[in-house]
Amino acid sequence: MGREQALNATPLVDVTAVQSALALTGEARLALDAEGAPPLDGIPDIRPTLARSAIEGSALDGAELALLIPVLDAGPRVHAWGRAVRPVAAAVAGLTDGLPRLVDLRDTLRHALEDDGSLTDRASPRLRQLRQQVRDRRRRIVADLERMLSAEGDRLFADRFVTVRHGRYVLPVRAEARQRVRGIVHDRSQSGQTIFVEPEAVVEANNDLVQALREEEQEAARILAELTAAVRARLGELERFVHAIGELDWLFARAHAAVRMDASAPAIDRQGRVSLKAARHPLLLAQAWRDPARTVVPVDVELSPDRPLLLITGPNAGGKTIALKTLALCAILAQVGCHVPAAEGSRLPVFERLYAIIGDEQSVAENLSTFSAFVKQIREVLAEADDRSLVLVDELGAGTDPDEGAALARAILEALADRGTLVVATTHLEPLRVFASTEPRARNASVEFDTRTLAPTFRLRYDVPGQSYALAIAGRLGLSPELIARAQAHRSTDAARMSQLLDQLDEATRCEAERTIMMERRESETAARLAAAREAEAGAATRAREIVERAKAEAAKLLTDVRRAVSAEWDRLKRAERSRPALDESRRRLREVAALVTPAPAAPRADEAPLAPGMAVAADHLGLRGQLIDVNGDTATVLAGTLTVRVPLSALHQTAAGAADRRAGSPARPFADPDTPPARAIAAELMLIGRTTDEARDLVEKYLDDAFMAGMANVRLVHGKGTGALRKAVRGLLSDHPLVDSYRDGEPAEGGSGATVAALKVS
Predict the structure, then answer these.
(1) Secondary structure element (H or E) that encloses residue 541, with its range
(2) 282 contacts 361 by C-beta, under 8 angstroms
(3) Residues with Cβ < 8 Å from 160, sequence gap 6 or more?
(4) Which residues is 172 bridged to in the sheet?
(5) Cα Rg, the chain, nearest whole Å
(6) Which helix (H) or strand (E) holds 370?
(7) Contact in structure between 273 and 304 (CB atoms under 8 Å)
(8) DSSP letters of 690-741?
(9) Which of 642, 634, 594, 644 is nearest to 611 (CA)?
(10) How far is the first Cα of the chain from the last one, in angstroms, to the nearest whole number?
(11) Do residues 443 and 308 lie in contact, with contact meaning Cβ atoms separated by under 8 Å?
(12) What's the pLDDT at 497?
């Protein structure tokens, strides 16, 4: 169905309709990327079946009806596919929305038919009953005949099996024993040695079987007629469904072709301007798909209402006619809704008429020469062409005297330009090249020819007239150099001078094009290197940020671990006996913890005096502040509160006088954080009401650390009464926290059971 729609596609001439068709193809490409093609595989063409069913009183056979089932099965799949592509292709999904829903008809057919079209026993209760009768009668007849075979054996029967002749069960009787078996003879073997006899005892049973079979056939015919009537009742919907399936197939054929051709949707230019960028002939693309060694050279085609005439000159086999056909095919493709094999940004108007005079239409039968055939065709063009027409003429002015042919061609071009008709013509005539260079409404273009290799490049250049290079091509195709030299001598002086000037212009243009390409390549390489450098810079900055964040996280974790370790060791010292071994063990463990955060030795500042006993010092990496007691080589002994600690001398620096005891009056804490604010900056209570249990645990953990380092003895945690979940979570944390000595309910003035007061450990 889709193939027929493609073959019968007619170019649209309404601008809005063309734009809608192109947009629909674009949506189909998006749907292909998102969900793939619609599930149309395995759908047969059922239109002949539908045509037969439309005849009143007709009945389709089972195979024809079964052919409808895969088509009806496709309906729900296509609907589901449409829902899936709706986010990216709403208009395409709209096509599937209009598909008739024929699930009931599908279920009816599937219930009554097997895959091969035979009727199932479920088709009707009567059919099931008749088939059961047939099976029972056959079983009884076969059983009776087999008993006869067993009783008489080989004396009467040629074989020991029951067979069927003309729809009736018979036995193979030996010819010489015919008189001993009473019954009806239905057949005889080729040798005449065996006679197939229906024994008298089973004649009535066979009659009953035949009658049951006829009734089964009648019931089957009735069911098939009934199913055909059900199809006929939904004929309009089925025809719409088939047509819609064909439309989807045609639409996605356009989408597949666009993807394969790397095509784009041209913008529709309402001003009548043609601008095809890097356009490629579709059939040349198809050849390139089959032969990857072939390449297709793109061309740019430009036309506008203010310069509607384009004359293409240049050598034979250089690509002039291909340029004409590429423009024509792209225009027709666009107007049937296909994307065109051209680059993004291409523009095309909507043409109402397209005329192509390409090839030799001479005919002996019609008494037409090449020139006569051209005049006949151009007369029709001049009678009908207008400002919404495109005219393509190959070898304009050929087939007659060059001077008269050029004059006639110029007059034709001027007449078409007066009407606003867009015209693209190829020619070899010098007067027409001059006309295109001097006429404001005309423009010259030429196909490029490489004079070094004597081969065309198939590129189209604008505003440069081209040469035919007939002598060079003739020499390349095998004519002798002497003959080419003689022909060159016969050329007129003006023609030879013109060719020389055009050669120089071609060479200058080629060199300039090469320089331009080289500059563009260098600019591209520079831009690529700059982009790579910026990307590397951004990557380095990102990595640096990641390293800093990771270092901060590791430092925070390490600081927490050190605090916990020191607090645990402090608690153990309070419970242990103050013996010398216990004290040495504690110092050893503290040195191990301190080693985790000992920084590399830093060079002393020039303006800093050497450290001496009695100075107030600090070890920032340990959060330690105290008084320097002794210096022994590279090791210093520092008194921090009631704890004496040995640290590397290089890790210490002098602090302002009195820093060692600026927290006098509050219990000293070993390894106190130098940035921790004093006790008065830490609130005496933490409000947790309204927090989740996870948020409360995090807040309490940090609050206890800050309160402990600030030297606070007691803190109050306000959690409220509520369901008790927050109170339970808080107390669960306090019960095994290393900084908490004990906890209790608050006094009535402290909030009662809605608050918990925790006593922190002290030295």
Answers:
(1) helix 493-575
(2) no
(3) 149, 153, 154
(4) 196
(5) 50
(6) helix 370-384
(7) yes
(8) T--HHHHHHHHHHHHHHHHHTT-SEEEEE--STTSHHHHHHHHHHHT-TTEE
(9) 634
(10) 94
(11) no
(12) 56
Asked if 492 and 444 count as a contact pair (C-beta separation under 8 A), the reply is no
Do 12 and 335 form a contact (C-beta atoms < 8 A)? yes
Q: What is residue 571's predicted lDDT score, i.e. its pLDDT? A: 63
Q: Return the pLDDT at 578.
A: 46
Give the integer Cα–Cα distance in Å for 583 and 319.
100
Place of tokens 């020619």: 427
Among residues 660, 661, 737, which one has the least CA distance to residue 703? 737
In this prediction, the residues of the chain whose per-residue pLDDT falls under 70 are 153, 360-369, 451-454, 468-470, 473, 490-510, 513, 563, 566-609, 621-623, 641-644, 656-681, 762-763
Q: Are 339 and 254 in contact (CB under 8 A)?
A: yes
Chain segment 437-461, per-residue pLDDT in tens: 889 999 999 888 776 666 777 888 8
C-alpha to C-alpha distance for 61 and 46, rounded to whole angstroms: 14
Q: What is the token pair recorded at 634?
A: 């590279």
pLDDT digits 0-9 by tens, 63-93: 999 999 999 988 899 999 999 999 999 999 9
The sheet with strand 347-348 has its strands ordered as: 267-268, 347-348, 274-279, 299-303
> What tokens does 60 get?
């389709």
Q: What is the pLDDT of residue 15?
A: 94
Q: What is the pLDDT of residue 596?
A: 59
pLDDT digits 0-9 by tens, 718-732? 888 888 888 888 888
| Burial of 100 per CB tally in 10 Å (0-12, 13-18, 19+) | middle
Q: What is the DSSP string of 188-211?
A: E-TTSSEEEEEEGGGHHHHHHHHH
For the four alpha carbons of 128, 130, 132 and 138, in that order, the dihedral sign comes to: negative
pLDDT tens, residue by residue, 629-673: 888 877 888 877 656 677 778 778 887 644 434 333 333 343 334
Give the pLDDT score at 626.
82
Structure tokens at 281: 């002939």
Please tell me the total number of residues recorded for the chain in this structure: 763
- Among 255, 249, 243, residue whose Cα is nearest residue 98: 243
Strand order in the sheet with 442-450: 353-357, 389-393, 422-426, 309-313, 442-450, 455-462
What pLDDT sits at residue 660? Answer: 37
Contact assessment for residue 342 and residue 263, using Cβ atoms and an 8 Å cutoff: yes
Beta strands across the sheet bearing 163-165: 163-165, 168-174, 194-199, 183-188
φ, ψ of residue 127 in degrees (nearest 5)? -65, -40
The CA-atom distances, in angstroms, between 129 and each of 105, 206, 219, 221 are 25, 18, 11, 16
State whether residue 121 is helix, strand or coil.
Answer: helix
The tokens 């010398």 sit on which residue?
A: 580
Neighbouring-strand partners of residue 390 = 354, 422
CA 556 centroid distance within chain: 46
Instruction: Lay out the sheet containing 616-619: strands in order across.
Output: 643-648, 635-640, 624-632, 616-619, 653-654
Which residues pair with residue 267 across a beta bridge?
A: 347
Q: Which of 752, 677, 664, 667 is nearest to 714 (CA)?
A: 667
Residues 554-606: tens digit of each pLDDT: 777 777 777 677 666 666 655 554 455 665 666 566 666 656 555 544 455 55
Contacts of 383 (CB under 8 A, 6+ apart): none
Checking DSSP bridges between strand 267-268 and strand 347-348, what pairing results, if any?
parallel
Instruction: Of 705, 742, 708, 703, give the one whose Cα is nearest residue 719.
Output: 703
Amino acid at 618: A
